[in-house]
Every structure is written in structure tokens, then in C-alpha cells.
Amino acid sequence: ALDTCGYASWDVIDAVRPYVDVFLYDLKIIDDELHKKYTGVPNQLILNNLNALVTNGEHVIVRIPLIPGITDTEQNLHEIAEHLAALPVKVEINLLPYHDSARGKYERLGQLYKLPDPSTGDSGSPAEMLDIFSPYDLPVSLGG
């Protein structure tokens, strides 16, 4: 069953666990209010499901899309690193550099593309963002 936000409940995820080798788990923003602002939904279920997957011994790769000025901020990345470092098992982390390849699709459909131009970010290079995770002793890489 899906919750009111449209995300899978733990019961649904638990039912598919025997058939999944690796969970690719996108994590964008830890702060619940900012998550609601940018995605329209709270993130508690997302964080709870991540914790449950890790606690149950699943192989999880956390993917963090680096959206200029939104998810690539130093504060957000530190908050994500702190959250992931507190999990009972270390998870692999992939930082996903932002691209706007969907912009053309939106234009063809006559829809407004609301995400920023990739050149507008001033939070540093993806390589510099890797350094944010160093103090937390987490396995992190670019791409994924």
C-alpha cells in the first residue's frame, strides 16, 4: 500500500526485499520543511524506510542528486552525512552531478521546467562536495 504521499509503505518494501539484490535509494534533503518545499511531501517515511532497509541487512546505495542551490548546499550535505553516519551499517553513497537533460522534454510538452540551470550553482564542484563526507568516514563517490 502507498501512504498519502504516494511512497511505498514498509510492508510493500518488505514484500519485495527477497527479490532485490541492491536498493538504489535516492535521498535529496534531510530537513523536513525544505523537503516539503522542494518535493511537496514530507520525508519521514523515506528516512524510516532507509533505516529499516539498512537495519535488515539490505545492500543499499544512497544516491544524492546535486541540484544547484537546493540539494548541493554544504548544510544539506552535512545533514545527509550525519544521518547516514548514524545508521547501524555504512552505506555506499553516490553523488550524482546535476544535468538538465529533461529540459528539452519539458519544452516539447509545453511545460515549464522549474529546476535551475546547471551553471547557476555556487556551492562548489562535485569533487569539493566529496570532501564534505570525509570526516564521517563514509564510502562516497561521484556518479553511480
Question: What does the model show?
Answer:
This protein has 144 residues and is of the alpha/beta class. Helices cover 36% and strands 14% of the residues. The protein contains 6 helices and 4 strands, in the order αβααβαβααβ. It has a 4-stranded parallel β-sheet with strand order 1-2-3-4, covered by helices on one side. α4 links the parallel β2 (60-66) and β3. 22% of the residues are buried.
Compile the SSE list and pairings.
Blueprint: H1 10-16, E1 23-26, H2 32-39, H3 44-55, E2 60-66, H4 74-85, E3 92-97, H5 103-108, H6 126-132, E4 140-142
Parallel strand pairs: 1-2, 2-3, 3-4
Question: What general form does the structure show?
Answer: globular
Helix content: 25-40%
How many strands, which pairing sense, and closed or not: the largest β-sheet?
Answer: 4 strands, parallel
Number of helices: 6
Structural class: alpha/beta
Give the total of beta strands: 4
User: How confident is the prediction overall: mean pLDDT?
Assistant: 84
List keywords for this structure.
144 residues; 6 helices; alpha/beta
In short:
By secondary structure, this protein is of the alpha/beta class. It has helices at 10-16, 32-39, 44-55, 74-85, 103-108, 126-132, and strands at residues 23-26, 60-66, 92-97, 140-142.
